[in-house]
Structures
1.
Amino acid sequence: MRPHLKRVILFVGINVSLLAILDAIMCSQIPKSVAIKNYWLLSKTDQNYDLAFIGPSRVLNSMDCEVFERKLNCKAINLGLSGVGYAEQYVLLKLMMEENHARIKKLCVEVSYYNLINPDSSFSYPFHEYIYLPYLKKDGVFDVVKNNTKDQLKVYLWRYFPLAWFAEFNNSYLKMMFLVSNAPPGIGDMDFDEHGSVFLKSTESVNKKVAHYYSNSTMDLKTKVYLEKIIELAKRNGTEVVLYTSPVYTKKVTYSKSAWNNYRNTVNQLKRKYNLKYFDTEKANVSNDESKFYDITHLNRDGAMAFSSDLSDSLAKK
Amino acid sequence: MLLAASCIFYMFFIPKYILILFLTIIVDYFAGILIEKNPQHKKSLLVISIITNVGILMFFKYFNFFATNFNELSDKLNWNYSVSLLEIILPIGLSFHTFQAMSYTIEVYRGNQRAEKHFGIYALYVMYYPQLVAGPIERPQNVLHQFHEEHKFNFNLLQRGLVLMLWGFFKKVVIADRIAYFVNPVFEDPHSYEGISLCVAAVLFSFQIFCDFSGYCDIGIGASQVMGIKLMNNFNRPYSAKSISDFWSRWHISLSTWFRDYLYIPLGGNRVPKIKWYRNIVIVFLISGFWHGANWTFIIWGGLHAFYQLFGLATNDLREKLRQAFGITKMKWLNSFSQVFTTFILVTIAWVFFRADTVSNAVYMIKSGIVGIPNYVEKVLTEKDYLWLEPLVLRSNYKVELFDLVVLLVSIMILEIVHHIKGEENIGNRLLQKPVLIRWSVYSFFIFFILFFGAFHNSAEFIYFQF
């Protein structure tokens, strides 16, 4: 038994060491795939921004930073990511501010009905845990990933067993590393501009799209907690926080009374609790103009420009 | 300990279903003892045991199938009567442990096996977790005595078991689950794909089902070997078979020998007039198909294999003469290749029925696949861009999917090389004869290959778990 045990220990030792080396290599190499917007944002260190916008695709597609820079004479960045909930927005901002020392003067956080209800009903994959696994050794990231992954035991395995995290999502990582320029939508947001925005071209009339009626009146508690964490994180780092809502094509969107009231109560509570400014721009000037929309909830290129201009005026006034 | 582990393992799926398993265990346990004690009543006791086992199998697995077909018939004949369907989930591994339990009572009845007096040992024989859900379907002579023996730590067995498990994981996680990513969408909606894509999906499915099922068996047999208990081998390079009967001596060996011993031979086997011999073959394959699943696709799959066998037997002399006339018999490699290739294609066509959701989908896939080949050749010859690659990778973004396909082809090549090197021998035995440096390198290579190229995320369940 003993000679066998020695051999087993040696074999396991060699392989675990190799795994640990590969783990370290992957942790450093995968975030270099800067065609993935998250990694592009995290590749920047010690940056100063006057204005940053954070939220899901409605931020990614609607905020034209050039307009803000021109009208407000500032440096702006779009932190919007496609199909993400507040938990992912929080972990991204945390890494940017606390690890990459990004300084942001004013953070515009998008709040909307869709962001505040259960993220699983708004987004198909609200927390892209695999993007953040190379950072899992950091406690802050680990906690968020753990809270947003169904199988929590797995998260411990990802953290403590070398390369387990890589194995789980190896296909996505290998494609990111070797095929990123050819990756299809979903692997990454390939065509974001130098400010991080992706603009949409209208392909068909929004009036032809099916109208949306929203009746879910339960605002998700966990989601609200992460929204509050974003606000607190920003405030801790000396950032002014502003809330706003991206426009929807109002002719095609209706809410049940209770859904609308609960959503507005949640936003008002936050406003009061953190003493925040809120720009209620869901029904902004553009929201009746069909030509400004890509679909019912997303602006197109023209819409993004027009809305950014309106919002920059509002920001300048207050 | 093993029995407790097996109970927990089984209850992991649907806990209350363990009661069904216990019912069959109790019936067969007492049936075995009573058959031995009362030889004059042994036939009726065997019948009771078989009726219990088959009855439970029929109820859970086939009730809805018969009810649906009855309702359709009733509809057509305007009987105005329908049987309501049951909303039940099939107990996991039911077909497997039912057959294993039946082999016990039949062997006790035949006097080849002493009745097991220890209830725990008998329960373990039926429930032994490494092979509970998808076989191999063991015989009492092979395993019952092993449960009585004391198993001391054996490093060699441990090594062999772990090597086999590693090999099983490679087949399942790297090959089968990666193929599932390509093949599942095609079988779910074959009408959206070109003929050549359907052919590629069918060929890939042949590898998927082999790697999925034999991968499970390797993991199960390996895990059992680690604990010192040897289970029978269930596969022996089935796609190197030179005929359909050769295929069945290499594929799911524990099931094919079960049917041979408990159905084919009792029916008279081949020692009966030719017409009865052919009938026996048809019966065995149809029942084998039906055993796999309560769907006409499985019955046709079985029927197709029966047809292959009969056609092979009827044309054996003619084919031999043709081979001689064309001089193929003189070129041994060509002779072997043509036999292996033909068998593989026939088996693949049958797998289409096995995998397809409906008979009409399967027929469509085969028809379109055959028509699609010449169309595709024409496309390759005329297309200037690399767009002709698209239907081969079964997706539109061929550059990205090509990556998956290359990984897959390399993995299948590794599979075939290993099969070629190990021959008929167990992979563990062969590898353990090599120097330590080679062994360790091979182990590490496979560990890293699985970690880098295994399809872990949303990995598919084992195909044979549904049976």
2.
Amino acid sequence: MRGRGEAMSAEEALRDPSTAGLLTRDGHLTELSLERRTLDDLASHEVAAVDAHLAACQPCARRYALLQDDEAPPLPASLQAAIAGASPPSGAPPPAAPTDERAAPVAVPPAEPPAGATVISLAARRRRWAVGGASALALAAGLLLALRRPPPSPVAADPAPDEVIRLKGSDLALEVYRDDGVGGEALFDGAPIAAGDRVGFRYRARRPGFLVVLGVDPGGHAYPIYPQGAGDGAVAVVAGDAFVTVDASLRFDDAPGTERVVAVLCDAPLALADASRIAVETAPPGCAREQLHLVKRAAP
Amino acid sequence: MTASPDALDLSAVYRRYAPMVLRRVRRFYQGPEAEEVLSEIFLKVVERHATFREESSPVTWLYHVATNHCITRLRNNRRRLELLAEHGNELQPLSADAQQEQRVLVRELWEGLDEELAQLGYYYYVDGMSHAEIARVAGVSPRTVGGRLETLRVLLDARLSRGAGGAA
């Protein structure tokens, strides 16, 4: 995690020649920069620069927030026909998640209900990612996780956004909200947060699969948020149109930097170690990934 | 690019990128026409998706394809004049203090520009991009961008001078 003295200001982040192109000549983020940020198309150093700017520039933050609400218009019939006629090159892998399977019931019964059954334990989290003793942990429902991190997972590389297959708005959606005990304000991607803020999570899976929610600290280290104490693997979830609240929340410390919250949904069971790799690297076929960035500001 | 359309599927590409492309199109077109243009652009993507693989970023590629398509579409269309009327005050620095007459001259010249010059000019004057970023998006060298924008500036200056002289 980035130390206090290493916080990157918006000015510092965008002074770098490699990120200068993200700005217009009058010092705001270009339209393309905001689009690339929305679609996870930026390199990690560019993400840091954009997020630092968003945290400091209200006009750009407002423009960015507006991009988050748009849904794709329905696929026109003429385009459907054209797509149907376009045969992929030989050897191309099949689509990761055929549309007609997304609402199908899960083939394997879920190990536990998708919401409210997995409990987070701060102590367990500090020991290791997955522990047994679910009944004891159940007493700790809603326990906050402080972002004093356990030993990081071995994967530390920054993600390669170009390689991420993320079907936003279709298979998997992730919502982060400021947890005030009664629901709270939904946070947009890149939202600023302050030390002591508590956030909760909701997901929507439109295909059945196996879900893991992780955090990735500014140093690129993944750590589990959900599940915790439910064994070594992801939680089986059923398809649905409603958002499901994850029984976990995070409280942030005062070290500035950008934290990522990543939800991973895969067709097949996966271990938390695999999920952590997907969180920081790529999503393989059969997996969808959704993430939000939260920009932690230094304590005043 | 790993997530090429053939590796995913084109429907998924549409779901993922159509909102971004539509927002870009709406800088040029409004209402139902915008969605019509969106379809045209994705038809192009279907036709050209083999070249998609060669691009480093699908977002930048689609952004450029959308910009080019819209400018080309406007070429023989009166909407081009409307566009320039909307963005006339954004043609910095040339129009910052320009009088209405000068802005009309800029519009006329803009309408007559070749497509590449119009695209680069749009990125520079309307989007406010730097030369380096235009070069990255358009897939040309920064030197080319600088040269073409200098050509554009000279054209605009000359036209404005003539217009001012003629008006005097």
